Structure formats: C-alpha cells, structure tokens
Amino acid sequence: MLSPTRHTIRNALTIDVEDYFQVSAMVPYIARQDWDHTPCRVERNVDCILQLLDDGGAHATFFTLGWVAERYPQLVRRIVESGHEVASHGYGHDRASALSRKHFSADVSLAKAVLEDVTGAAVRGYRAPSFSIGRANDWAFDCLLEAGYRYSSSVYPIHHDHYGVPDAPRFPYPVRDGLLEVPITTARLLNRNLPAGGGGYFRLMPYRVSRWFIQRVNDVDGQPAIFYFHPWELDPGQPRVPGIDARTRFRHYVNLHRTEARLKRLLSDFRWDRVDRVYLGEGA
Ligand SMILES: [Zn+2]
Predict the structure, then answer these.
(1) Residue 7 alpha carbon to ligand 1 centre in Å
(2) CA 8 to ligand 1 centroid distance, Å
(3) pTM, rounded to two decimals
(4) Residue of 116, 156, 213, 220 with fewest CB within 10 Å of its CB?
(5) Which regions of 69-196 does DSSP assign to beta strands (E)?
(6) How far is the CA of 284 from the centre of ligand 1 (A)?
C-alpha cells in the first residue's frame, strides 16, 4: 500500500547518458581510442527510455556526455523535444578525481558548449562520472560555477569502494553561492545511509526494497528522492566485454533483463520530474 505522498511529492528522475563501454569499471578493458570502433547501443536504449517515460507520463533529466551529443545530435534533440532536461555528464567520462583542476575545467566547459550547441538551450546541471567529487577535489565546485552551471548532482553520501562521501548532507545544499549540490538519495536506517537512488543497487535488490526506501524518504524525511540509471542497464542484448574481472562482470550484468519492468513499476508508483523543476523550482 503506497502512502498519499505518492500523489503529492515530485521526485527527480535522472539518466546518465553513456554507453556500456564508457562506464568507469570498463576503463581497464576498453581503451579510449577504441570507443569509435565499438558497436554503440546508446541511441537504441535512449529511444527505449523516451518511450517508457512517455508511456508513464514522466519527465526526467538526462546527464549526457559531450562525446555522445557530438555523435548523436538528433538523439539529444529528441530528448529535448520530448520535454526533458538535458544536463552535462562531462565530455569523455573522465572522473573529476582523475583530472587536474585545469583539465576538469576544460572538460566541463567543453561538454556544456557541445550540449548547448546541439540543444540551443542553456545547460544548468552537471553530474560527475562515478560521483567523483569529494573532499579532496572540492575545487571542482568552483570550476562548475565558473563554467556557468547552477547545480551539481555529484555526491553520493554512502560507503562504496569506488565513490561516496558517507558523511555528506543527504539532501540538497548550497556548495557555493549560486551552486546547489543535489546528492543521490539515501535511506537512513540504523544510523547508516543506505543507497536508495538507483544504479546497480536497483538491479541487485528486489524492487520492493527500492520502493520502500523511496517511500520512506518521501514520508519520513518529507523530501523528494533523486534516482538515476543508465541506458545500458535496460539492454540485456548488449555485447559482452571479454576478459573482465568477476566483480565487474557481476555488477555490470546482474539482472539487466529485469530493469525495464522495474522501471515501469517505479514510474507508476511515484511521480517523477526533471531536476530543474524539482529542485530549482523552474517551470513547475
Ligand atoms: Zn557515468
């Protein structure tokens, strides 16, 4: 039984638009110079998502790589024409923590320029690949502000072996004057932050756990949730990357065939909208 907040609270739905061979865990196995020769699935998968959102009456924010926008400008325009927000996921999926301040600045400025050129609209949001902004590279927020971004969604307040700032605030907070950080949603249980905002956990855990976490954030915290997934997570037919380690293989391929049905339930169980409308109060 879902509570009445299902009808009142608008949650933020986000998609990180990158292909299966661009995820950080695949970096050791697929060289950057091979990207152009690897079969792409991103266009097919984003079109599938656009149909799902249309069927579910939901809007979302698509954090898109500059690399993808350059190769698939019509796809990015279809995202805008369907009423969704296009935001930035950087140009080439480099982790913020792996770049110097100068290179990070160049990456986020280039991605913003490419996306704005393709869409003809201002890009306000940025999400760091693999949530790679933390205490050690806090200067990244200065770069985002200088580049003209108004919000970031780059911090996940959990313990994880690849990312996470477990003691970061759980809900949106200003990181600079004019720049809001919108952290990925966690559920607070037994003095711990548990991942409630999607990604691999959404495929790993039974759907009812994800639903209960989001409902708890809406009901107990009285806050919208922000949830994310990737186009390749709906694609059980994607080419298998050979030679990867067992942990990466499990995390990347577990339950891919269940994602689409789970997303349909998620769209029907909660209200979903774009980040700019939910958190910047624009066009609400
Ligand atoms: Zn990413």
Answers:
(1) 30
(2) 30
(3) 0.95
(4) 220
(5) 85-88, 125-126, 151-152, 173-176, 179-181, 186-189, 192-195
(6) 27
